[in-house]
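User: Second chain of the day. Same drill as before.
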Amino acid sequence: MLRRSMNAFGLSCHGVVFLAAAESDFAFPDPTTRARALSDLRGCIDLCAELGGRIVPIVPRPVGLLGPTAPRADEWGWLQDGLAGAAHAAAAGIKTGIEALNRFEGYLFNRCADVVAFVSEIEHPGLGVVLDTFHMNIEEPNPATAILAAGDRLIDFQVADSDRSAPGRGHVDWPALANALRAIDYRGALTAELAPPITSIDIKSGRANSSAPPKSATHIDEPEFADQLRETADFLRDFL
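Assistant: Same format as last time:
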């Protein structure tokens, strides 16, 4: 059904993202929660294969979890055991990779070096690295050097400028990143991950009003977001 709908709009699938949740967490002490995470990851991999996709980026612990819930050695071991389930991906022809998140969204893998160290220990050809320029801008002393360190382990490169806006609107050094991607002969996708502008809307009047938070709701500035998507598409066509 989903694939038919995509075909009707001329869309193709590049990948499917696995995002951990409270009940589906690869490093939570409860074994049932860890088993659910592996089951959900396998479901993402199967869906990706069914839709003709090629990659499954993985965020193995819930976004916003900023500290451990067990001793570090235990968490590391549970992650290794669970993500060895990426073997399922290799059989389906799908590449998987762990994404490094900034310290305000996660604690486990903040820099490219953290992910590289982990996947090097597992030594599984189906498990690689996912990098995002927004997170890199916060965590990496030199984002271009991080790309070089990822090398052929890099399976997906997610792009947004320093404030999650369209590339070119912030202060990310895009030429340096392009040179680094060329140096490692990166052949994967450039995946846009923008955060749309948010306006505070007064529920009663329907007008923008940031002075009354209890009576307001967030609203995506759709025309502005559409403009940024077009800018991003134009930018990426010439990026490499």
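The first strand starts at residue 18 and ends at 19.

User: Great, on to the next one.
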